[in-house]
Amino acid sequence: MSGRIHLADDIALDLDRGCLVRGGKPIHLRKQTFEVLRCLAEEQGRLVSKDRFVEEVWRGRAVTDGSLGKCIEEVRQALGPEAAGYLRTVRGRGYVFEPANPERPDAPQDAQTDSRPPQQEPTAKPPVVRVNAVAILALVGVVLAAAAVYLARSGVFRQPIKAVAVLPFVNGTGDPQLEYLCDGITENVIDRLSRLSGLRVTAQSAVVHYKGREVDARTIGRELGVEAVLIGRVAKRGDTVGVALELVDARDNSHIWGDQYERALSDLPAMAQEIPAAVSQRLRPRLSEDMIRPVEGTHIGNADAYQLYLKGRYSWEKWTADGVKQAIAYFAAAIDKDPDYALAYAGLADTYVFGTYAGGGLPQKEAHRRARAAANKALSLDPQLAEAHAALAEVLLYDEWDFAGAERELRRALDLNPSYAEGHHYYSHLLLLLGRNEESLRESRMFLELDPVSESPVGHFGYHYVCARQFDAAIAQSLKDLQLYPDAPQDLLEEAYYAKSMFREAVDQYITRRERTLTSTETADLRAAFTASGINGFLKKRLGQLMSASEGDRNDVAIAAIYARLGQADEAFQHLDLAYAKHADGLVRIKQNLGFDAIRSDGRFANLLRRIGLPL
After folding, report:
1. What is the pTM assigned to this prediction?
2. Side-by-side strand order, sheet with 4-8
């Protein structure tokens, strides 16, 4: 089949170019995501089962629900806010792409009927929802109240629940404009519950994989290692907002508690204050004062600022260049509405620190300067924000080489929120830089415990094992990661191969990881050099490529590592001195960098560690 398949107004699937076209602009998707969309497009209005996807997209290979769920989420994002609502989940059966003006008027009625949510017209375009931020906080309060009341009941404490997962709240209206609201409620509930001492709350990055999926609580409990699952659905009808909640025992799929709330928007402000107060009184006999971390001092901003903050977080978590720019704009707009809004400054700091790696467009030094200013402002307004402490730690580490300061801030972040998964991730990396491998392993395990299904913690173990010089374990872990997540980057797998003298595999991995930055000519030259002269030929060719960059863009740390491997110590230290003069952030990783193993015994290397501030 060739040509185009019309999907919606100005959206089509271009089969010849292998991309989605929206508003005349091509949108390129991962191969599996494109094939999933192709299956849906060819069967518009008809149910496409998981078995069909497995057969046509993965050619019958075993595939996890997470891989398909990720493709479905990427399809929804690519379709855009208007058309994403046309892709519906059919409980326990599969998916249906059902546009407002379907290309197939003769589509079977059973698939269409099964896929529609209750009380929703099948072809009407959902109305744009504008929800007051106070309503958002009220719904968060309802959820926290309900969950906390359950945890306080004596019957449950006889069979204690030590870990809970809050699933992404379902958008009951199907309106894409409501998505940021549902995600914002989920994030807030996780954050508040994380402050209950002794209760482990699964990270949002782990539960997001269940968005748009129909999975029973027992399966989720087994995958995430939790005893209870909190499920919520948000809907808006006219001037009324409703939330349906259910707490399920993941050990046997039994219903623990559930309730439905429906309030006029005008009644929500009072409810937002009354319910948390009532829950606090009910919890007090069960929990000592120091078991609940105080939240009263957190300033949430005014109604408009809070909505802008939620949109900023929603954009940032897309982890794209456009998403980063949108997030910065939303956070800045929230601060304009409320200059004392600490959460917005913390979001801005996060975006500047990590946005550079997602293509945010700012030079790293400038991004770090802005991140530090935003983090300091957030902490001056609210010293209890764990995310702001973590963002400041990253600036202190990479921009100022203040290792003690970075550790202090990360420890403070984890003290404020022990369930902060990314905080454990960052701390694990810092400990690796300092050569404290056993402590790093402890933090890595906590990261995985809090987020057991995402790629990041699984892949992080491969990285950890390389830095700890456990090369067999590193290779095994990285290959396991690739099986689960075929598109996942394996940052140091090439180093493990090199250390095991598996040079062909090392070269293949090196080129694969840099396929977006190497030109086709550079790739061909590297392969030809390896074929002709082995690993030294490859290293010399890559050295020449790196040396050809302009002085401002030259990676002197990478150049020094190649010289070290070629046995040219003087040239290696010459470029390390140049990197030091530039304050290159790659130098903070020099203690764990395998490329310098050949010159570690040289007194000049120990002297460089002292100058950087790293332990010998």
Report:
1. 0.61
2. 4-8, 11-14, 19-22, 25-27
Cβ-contact 397, 403 below 8 angstroms: yes
Residue 401's Cβ-count burial label (10 Å; 0-12, 13-18, 19+) is middle
Tens of pLDDT, residue by residue over 86-112, are 787 765 677 888 875 443 333 333 333
CA distances from 412 to 353, 372, 386, 393 (A): 18, 16, 7, 10
8 A C-beta contact, residue 558 and residue 566: no
In degrees rounded to 5, what are phi and psi of residue 299?
-85, 125
Is 32:23 a contact under the CB 8 Å cutoff? no
List C-alpha distances in Å: 98 to 6, 233, 402, 508, 548.
12, 22, 55, 43, 53
Rg (CA), the chain: 26
What the block records as the tokens of 53 is: 């996807």
Q: Which of 390, 51, 419 is nearest to 200 (CA)?
A: 419
As a whole number of angstroms, the distance between CA 214 and CA 266 comes to 34
> Cα–Cα distance between 223 and 207 in angstroms, integer?
10
Beta bridge partners of 292: 196
The amino acid at residue 205 is: S
Closest CA to 425 of 416, 413, 324, 435: 413
The region that residue 45 occupies, defined by phi over 0 for left and psi between -120 and 50 for alpha, beta otherwise, is left
Distant-in-sequence, close-in-space partners of 106: CB < 8 Å, separation ≥ 6:
none
| Helix then strand then coil, % of the chain, to nearest 5 | 60, 10, 30
**pLDDT, tens only, 292-321:** 444 444 555 566 777 788 788 878 777 677
Asked if 240 contacts 179 with a C-beta cutoff of 8 angstroms, the reply is: no
